[in-house]
Amino acid sequence: MKKIGILVVAYNAAATLAEVLDRIPQDFRGRISEVLVSDDSSNDSTHLIALGYRQLADDLHITAVRQEENLGYGGNQKVGYRWAIDAGLDIVVLLHGDGQYAPEMLPEIVAPLDAGDADVVFGSRMLDKGGARGGGMPLYKFVGNRILTRWENMMAGTDLSEWHSGYRAYAVDALAEIPFESNSDDFDFDTEIILQMVEAGRRIVEVPIPTYYGDEISRVNGLKYARDVAGHTLEYRLHKMGFGSGARAFASDAYEMKMDGDTSHTRLLAWLRTRRPSRLLDLGCSDGSFAAAAAELGHHVVGVDVVEHEGVRDRVEDFVLGDLTDGIPSEVGKDFDVIVAADVFEHVRNPKELLEECHGVLADGGSIITSVPNFGHWYARFRVTAGIFDYDRRGILDVDHVRFFTRKSFERLVDSAGFEVARAEATGLPIEVADRGAGEPVHDDSRGRAIVSKVDRALVGIRPTLFAYQFLYELEPARH
């Protein structure tokens, strides 16, 4: 039997709290291990009501606490979820002390978690057509709810019927693995925790609940709330695309291949397609996706990376765990026809040493194919000029980059390491990143993207030092 806890968040709920607790179904009360009534420093007798109810209810194990200062709706939840984690509960349900959400629905809310079919359960007032308005939800709230939910689904890649219900249940182990304590203390906490569960890949299930609007006082500043939640989901989407620090897009992923029509990985594979099958060393191979594509062309690939990502050994002939900051591991061997260093040199402190080491593992007539981000790109220049330089989760200003290159500086590096440029190209913006983390588009924008891509490619051709997103090179040992 899973241990179930009920977190009752209450603020000035003296008139409703006892009734809310009374309405917990009798045949479900025995399943509840703990109830925490957390009074958020109310101005009325909410805490005294909780203490009195605890004395009378011998079928519920109630802990009643009063916060010394008002923590806010989100701050009160943080206290409750930390309690659930520390108490070793398996499931915790959020219940409001004002009676807006029906305690009678607790068995239905808990059921998917109890069965192991979900990590998160949301009670939705929108699943039953007409239920929200029929239950008294004001028209302006209904319309706002639908508009915001549509926006949030688009930004986060979800298909929830409602993002704004406060009736929720969580698997406690799922809560323990997300940074919920860094969230807002206000009402937008609920949106932030959804984003965190989505980012963590947790299973979310919705169940229909009745809508009830009574005499409770709404303490939500509607315009501020709408601005905050819309901003959080936009920020999450941008982080998934690679812009920003990635604080919301916190999950650790393998380095993603860029496989749109004009991106670096596609171009480098096109170069390999023109070569006979050869021995290939993939430095910084990540999860081996690029190596697998090269293997389909007949190449025999040895991969090297500092992390052994899931499935990488299935995608390469041989995998060597090693930090390229310390050089190329001796275990990889020698006499490679091609060394692939896609987005690698910007990640090491001394790229010249790494390039020089490549001489020792290349076969006669061998070459290096590589891609490097262009720090001279307009995006990086704009950030620096505007005084808002900071690292992003991906891209030119990737937080893991320790070196930055322009075309001129990288070619100087190549020359100093004893190589020469046999071939060079430039790529434009990776338009495909617009799809990362996104839901279904509102409309088909393929034509718009095609226009943007054509304009970008034209600008790259006119002035690559300003508009090239990456430079691609094939390098050969210098003949002089």
If you had to describe this structure to a student in words, what would you say it looks like?
With 480 residues, the chain is an alpha/beta fold. The chain has two domains: 4-241, Spore Coat Polysaccharide Biosynthesis Protein SpsA, Chain A, CATH 3.90.550.10; 264-477, Rossmann fold. The chain is built from 18 helices and 14 strands. A seven-stranded mixed β-sheet has the order 3-2-1-4-6-5-7, sandwiched between helices. Strands 10-9-8-11-12-14-13 form a seven-stranded mixed β-sheet, sandwiched between helices. Helix 7 (139-156) packs parallel to helix 10 (222-241). The mean pLDDT is 90.
List the main descriptive attributes of the protein structure presented here.
480 residues; alpha/beta; Spore Coat Polysaccharide Biosynthesis Protein SpsA, Chain A; Rossmann fold
CATH superfamily of the largest domain: Spore Coat Polysaccharide Biosynthesis Protein SpsA, Chain A
Radius of gyration: 28 Å
Number of domains: 2
Biggest sheet, spatial arrangement of strands: 3-2-1-4-6-5-7
Tell me the number of helical segments per DSSP (H or I, 4 or more residues long).
18
